[in-house]
Amino acid sequence: MSRFTAFFWVLFLAAFVLRAEEPAYLDPHLEPFRNLLGKTFRGEFKDSKPDKPLVDVSRWERALNGKAVRILHSLNDGAYGGETLFVWNEEAQAVKYFYFTTAGFTTTGTVAFKDGKILTHEHVAGAANGVTEVRGVSEISTAGTLQVKTEYLKNGDWVPGREVTYREDAMAKVVFK
To answer: Distance (Å, rounded) from C-alpha 160 to C-alpha 166?
Structure first.
């Protein structure tokens, strides 16, 4: 192999390695989600009973060539599940999201990022046991856990919703039946 050929291959491999380490494109408005992408989390609800645990598994992914972030999740191995898409909405100048469920209801909401927290507020469409709105706060701890706490507007009153601490679990699987 000539010096020129060897030099060419070194440049080619260096370019390939450097390009492989570049993070995939993500809409700048969605960057606060980047540390969650490509990860699967498992969380047990705070009020879960040891004999009947309520377990949620969620998978965070880059979608639509980086123009969206997708979450797939399921409770108790597919007893319930959903899919969320977060996108930048130019007209609203906000990150919007759309949540579709196996229970038949949907939600649309907005996201704000403040002081390292993800703040959500959504409106529910369809039969959701009287719940018409949901607002929540999510935060990634320094230990890498994802804390989620919500409250529901149900029959005109804000009531406590779910409280879950998620831990990354590469072996957990989102299940749809």
So the answer is: 18
